[in-house]
Amino acid sequence: MSEKDLRINEQIRVREVRLIREGGDQPIVQSIMPTAEALSLAREAGMDLVEVAPQAVPPVVKILDYGKFKFENEKRVRDSKRKQKLLKLKEIRMQPKIDDHDLDFKSKHVSEFLGEGNKVKVTIRFRGRELAHTELGLDVLKEVLAKIEGEYVMDKPPAMEGRFMSMVLSPKAKKQGSGVSQGTAP
């Protein structure tokens, strides 16, 4: 429910509403009453009548300071966005006839991307007659997995997509609570 969906004061155009009143140490009180009466109670309190559950029958309203309510909602949304970690998808491209040194180099990059917490799409591109020998591409992908053993969780196993064979790896979840507490040195 976003603030744009909320109706306040005169925007509430239903005959009856369920008014929820919360008072400091008093229990929550609910009562069904005409909208005009709820609106007059809100005005007496010097606050706004805000529709918090428009889908209910009758709609649920609260008497509260709309400016403060809006600020608290925005703050909650900002905090939840801050806590989210954006996962990026990095892509490493190779060919089935890749040299050992190049394979080591690319595998090291895959390992670094996984270490940073990113997902990695490893892609083998087939050109011309290489398409007749897709098993060579599969062998290359298996070699990459062998080189980065234990650092990944396979989201999508190797599969052909046109002229490309690809797989998607994501980092292993870090265990919570394990580790030595920092700050105290012996």
Output the keywords.
rod-shaped, alpha/beta, 8 strands, 186 residues, 4 helices, disordered C terminus, four-stranded mixed sheet
> Number of DSSP strands?
8
* Spatial gap, N to C terminus: 52 Å
Mean pLDDT: 82
Rg over alpha carbons: 29 Å
Note the total helix count.
4
Low-confidence stretches: 176-186
Structural class: alpha/beta
The side-by-side strand order for the widest beta sheet comes to 2-1-4-3
Question: SSE string, helix = H, strand = E?
Answer: EEHEEHEHEHEE
Shape: rod-shaped
Main sheet properties: 4 strands, mixed
* Proportion of residues in β-strands: 25-35%
Helical fraction: 25-40%
Describe this structure in words.
There is one protein chain. The protein has helices at 35-45, 66-83, 100-115, 134-147, and strands spanning 16-23, 26-34, 48-53, 60-64, 89-94, 119-125, 152-161, 164-171. With 186 residues, the chain is of the alpha/beta class. The strands form two sheets. The chain has a four-stranded mixed beta sheet. Helix 3 (100-115) packs across helix 4. It is rod-shaped, with a radius of gyration of 29 Å. Mean pLDDT is 82; it is low at 176-186.
In short:
With 186 residues, this protein is of the alpha/beta class. The chain contains four helices and eight strands; from the N terminus they run ββαββαβαβαββ.
